[in-house]
Design goal:
Length: 157
């Protein structure tokens, strides 16, 4: 079995692609490979957002508790996507649960490590903010649409 180069995986991931070799190598110093089995949580709402994940295989459900409705999945993420944007903005807390819906292989990024690096390199921080903001906006849109569907009045017969 061939061992894949973590630096290459990170630099080729859509969120970091085109960032440049030096920034990618800096970022990859905060990375490790992880696995989650079906049903395991990558994060839980309210916990400290000290990691985020680049999905390499498998699927993850982003979930939230809805009064009188139970747990709702507001988005499903798959290979090539990213789990977690809460690491970038204070108070660095997860706003939702992320649960593996099948076995997941991912690159876990140590957010504390990365926050320290962007504190020293504000240009890198700006570049990451520009790359993560569209993901954040997309997640907010998805959540909004899900809430509209959940709380819409029942159709009349």
């Amino acid at each position: 079995m061939a061992v894949e180069n973590l630096d290459r995986i990170i630099c080729e991931h859509p969120v970091f692609h085109g960032l440049g070799d030096q920034p990618c190598l800096l970022i990859s110093g905060c990375a490790k490979n992880v696995r989650f089995e079906k049903g395991e949580y990558l994060c839980r709402e309210g916990e400290s957002a000290d990691w985020f994940y680049l999905l390499r295989a498998g699927s993850v459900a982003l979930e939230m508790a809805a009064p009188a409705k139970g747990v709702l999945t507001f988005q499903s993420l798959h290979e090539g996507e990213l789990v977690g944007v809460s690491w970038l903005l204070p108070p660095y807390r997860w706003g939702y649960d992320a649960r593996a819906t099948e076995r997941v292989r991912a690159v876990a990024m140590d957010a504390r490590c990365l926050r320290a690096k962007i504190e020293d390199d504000h240009e890198l921080g700006f570049q990451l903010m520009m790359r993560f903001t569209p993901i954040l906006v997309e997640r907010l849109h998805g959540t909004r649409l899900q809430l509209l569907d959940v709380y819409a009045p029942a159709a009349r017969a």
